[in-house]
Amino acid sequence: MLLGGCSPARTQGASASWAKAYPTLQELTQDADAILVGMVEKSTPASAVDGIPFTDATVAVNIWLKGKESASAITVKQTGGAVPGASVSVVDPLMQPGESSMLFLHKNDDGTYTALSGPTGRLLVSGTAVTKMPDTSLAEAIPETLPALIAEIKLLL
Question: In whole angstroms, what is the distance from residue 59 CA to residue 114 CA?
Answer without folding.
Answer: 12
